[in-house]
Amino acid sequence: MYRISTRGQYALLIMEDLAMGQKDKYIPLKTLSHRRNLSVKYLEQILIQLSKAGLVSGSRGISGGYKLTKEPEKYTIGEILRVMEGDLCPLSTFENKTLISEGSRSFWNDFEDTINNYVDSVHLDDLTEKNKKFVGYDYCI
Q1: Residue 67 is inside which H or E element, if any?
Q2: What CA–CA distance (Å, rounded) separates 128 from 20?
Q3: C-alpha to C-alpha distances, 17 to 62, 128, 134, nearest whole angstrom
Q4: Tens digits of per-residue pLDDT, 114-128?
Q5: Whole-number pLDDT of residue 50
Q6: What is the reported pTM?
Q7: What is the rounded CA–CA span in Å between residue 124 and residue 39?
Q8: CA of 59: how far to CAs of 19, 29, 30, 40, 116, in Å?
Q9: What is the DSSP letter of 94?
Q10: Maximum CA pair distance of the chain?
Q11: Environment class of 66 (CB within 10 Å of its CB; exposed 0-12, middle 13-18, buried 19+)
Q12: Of 1, 17, 83, 104, which residue is least crowded by CB atoms under 10 Å?
């Protein structure tokens, strides 16, 4: 079964952080690193990949950092995951297609379509809205 890597999962978390920030302000790399308890070096690798794909922009200097290149509602989760993961296919390419029955192939194609249709229907702002609604746990001593 196909699994989303930690890089893909962290990319979504970082994109959520950027979406929840102020629209025109860059969020420093160290701030993002601290929020998710990730090493700066690891986070930088993820952000470079997102930047090369045009999903985020970076700026150096005192007020530097990263920000989204477009509004959160214009990003799909599928778009973000594909930058980090490649195609979202539940099975690797069939090396020997003669071993796969037509019924099985049809099932796996439908399954792949369902996964891709779902991740393409959820937008980054959908995730941020759910996070805003989550109040968290209330601890009293």
Answers
A1: strand 65-68
A2: 7
A3: 20, 8, 15
A4: 999 999 999 999 988
A5: 98
A6: 0.84
A7: 24
A8: 17, 10, 13, 15, 32
A9: P
A10: 65
A11: buried
A12: 1
Asked if 51 contacts 58 with a C-beta cutoff of 8 angstroms, the reply is: yes
Q: Dig out the tokens for 124 from the structure.
A: 């980054």
DSSP 7-27: HHHHHHHHHHHHHHS-TT-PB
Nearest alpha carbon to residue 79 among 35, 134, 121: 121
Q: Is 56 exposed, middle or buried (0-12, 13-18, 19+ CB in 10 A)?
A: buried
36, exposed or middle or buried, with CB in 10 Å at 0-12, 13-18, 19+?
middle
Using DSSP's 3-state secondary structure scheme, residue 108 falls into helix
C-alpha span between 77 and 125 (Å, rounded):
10
3-state helix, strand, coil split of the chain in percent (to 5) is 55, 10, 35
How confident is the prediction for the chain on average, in pLDDT?
Answer: 87
